[in-house]
Amino acid sequence: MYIIRQAAEHDISHLQAMQREGWEQDYVGYMPESYASVALQRYGTTEAIARAIANYRYYFVCEQAGERLGCVAADHTSDSEAELYWIHVAQRHRGRGLGRDLVEYLASSLEPSITTLFVTTFQNYMPTLAFYQALGFTEHDKKITDYDGVAVNDIKLKRTLSRENI
Length: 166
Fold this sequence. Notes:
Blueprint: E1 3-6, H1 12-26, H2 35-43, H3 46-55, E2 58-64, E3 67-76, E4 81-89, H4 98-109, E5 116-122, H5 126-134, E6 138-147, E7 150-160
Parallel strand pairs: 4-5
Antiparallel strand pairs: 1-2, 2-3, 3-4, 5-7, 6-7
């Protein structure tokens, strides 16, 4: 059995490994090749992850017997909205419902005033789009985002929250 708990500084090296797995393996073929190094410098450094743990209201780790299986990070963007910034389940632990459990744990942890949860992903990353759609997210907006000179086709999805569906 696994637990979901608040992330802490002692999780940073494990979270960095998840970042590398995502950017260097999962997104190959879906993202511009040059984006992995940009993303790892932006989000995957010790300092960046420590900042996220300190600043995001919601940064959870899924753990079993000391092994980190996955994580989810989010924060409020207004009085009624939150953004899911990152979710990852280690490849060898996928297909067990951990990603769904992380999103539902996050949704149930949000303050009651939060009625909309957003997430931005890549327009052509079909596994992630299918995952979010299965959890009730729908398309909100599409755009091309410039990340340090790398153009990325983003899609923003939203899920309306009610205390009945979380």
